[in-house]
Specification:
By secondary structure, this protein is mainly β. The chain has 2 helices and 29 strands. It has a domain at 30-142. It has a 29-stranded mixed beta sheet that branches.
Length: 365
């Protein structure tokens, strides 16, 4: 037994000593890799709509517009930092494909692809690495773009200033935040989609025209939709699997009959709808939760809008707060007094399988 104990102590000493040596060597070879690269796009034959494809494996991607004159149709600036243990002697090429392969402006559409090399399991520099990467894309305000951007790990943010026209705008992240922020007189003349697999997806707009509607969502995370004095030309869809939806509108108007479809499997829908302008068309709202609640505040101050809410709860409570002079209630249906005579109708369906529906409704007319 004594001999076995001595052998065990020897093995433990070797293991601990080797581990400490490994850690000491790692810190002794700690390092930081810094690089920056700029890419430019100027087509030889300009098109009415310029397409751009952006794919970034890791990092923060920000899409903005120029504030000074620029001859380029697009500029991509990359700031790259990699830090960690066992970095001595390493370059960015140990982690990324060569920068000369990132920007392919002869393809259709021209594309920027910043790809990470697969981790090398026997190289400890890959085990402890930390990335700090910013990809800044600058567009021109006088060009109409067709944008498709995707990040695998990291954030994707696009800020659109006033008086901009875009065509299709597709923003996607696998793990990380995605944000579309637009301002006065922005017009999307194509498909708009903002999606995240794991992370927050946000669309925040003021005085923006979504000609063909909007599709947004996240599998696991939060969905934020905020529209102030915006115009919608088709359906608005927001889908979440696990997470909550925050939906806020102030004077959202419509070009044609449309549907607002908000759904989450597990989570809560928080809605605030304030309408002080004509609706413009008949609108159907579908707010549905499987496990979770719906919290909706609704204020209508236009006589030309009739409103009806139909609530359904399998396990939970259905709570309405309203003025009897503005609405009548029959079972789970709440109807404004002008619903049948109003030229435009807002018709809502609210449902949850397990949870509570709390509705606070006002209709001034």
């Amino acid at each position: 037994m004594k001999r076995l104990a001595i052998i065990a102590i020897f093995i433990a000493a070797v293991f601990v000593g080797g581990f400490l040596g490994f850690i000491i060597t790692g810190f002794a070879t700690w390092g930081n890799i810094n690089n920056s690269f700029d890419f430019y796009y100027e087509p030889s034959s300009p098109a009415p709509i310029e397409e751009l494809l952006l794919n970034v494996d890791v990092g923060a991607v920000e899409i903005q517009y120029n504030t000074t004159d620029t001859p380029y149709y697009a500029k991509v600036e990359v700031s790259l930092a990699i830090s960690g243990l066992f970095m001595v002697g390493k370059t960015y090429l140990d982690f990324f494909n060569p920068y000369t392969e990132w920007w392919v402006n002869t393809s259709t559409p021209p594309s920027f692809n910043m790809n990470v090399k697969p981790d090398v399991w026997f190289d400890p520099s890959h085990w402890f690495k930390l990335y700090n990467i910013l990809v800044l894309v600058t567009l021109r305000t006088d060009i109409v773009y067709d944008i498709k951007a995707h990040t695998v790990t990291g954030s994707l943010k696009m800020r659109v200033p006033e008086d901009i026209i875009l065509n299709n705008t597709i923003l996607q992240t696998t793990t990380g935040e995605v944000l579309l922020n637009s301002f006065a007189n922005t017009k999307f003349e194509g498909k708009v989609s903002v999606q995240s697999t794991t992370g927050t997806a946000s669309v925040i707009s003021k005085r923006t025209n979504y000609t063909y509607g909007l599709n947004a969502g996240t599998t696991t995370g939060t969905l934020v939709l905020s529209f102030e004095n915006c115009l919608l030309g088709n359906d608005l869809t927001g889908i979440v699997t696990t997470g909550s939806i925050f939906y806020t509108t102030n004077n959202l108007t419509f070009i044609q009959g449309s549907t607002i479809n908000l759904q989450t499997t597990t989570g809560t829908i928080y809605g605030t709808i304030n309408q002080y302008e004509d609706l413009g068309a008949n609108v159907t709202g579908n707010l549905a939760v499987v496990t979770g609640s719906i919290e909706l505040d609704y204020v209508n101050d236009k006589s030309g809008i009739g409103t009806r809410f139909s609530g359904a709860v399998t396990t939970g409570n259905l709570n309405y707060v309203y003025s009897a002079s503005e609405f009548t209630r029959f079972n789970g249906v709440l109807t404004s007094g002008n619903y049948n005579s109003a030229p435009y109708k807002y018709t809502f369906s609210l449902s949850t399988v397990t949870g509570t529906i709390n509705l606070d409704a006002e209709s001034h007319h």
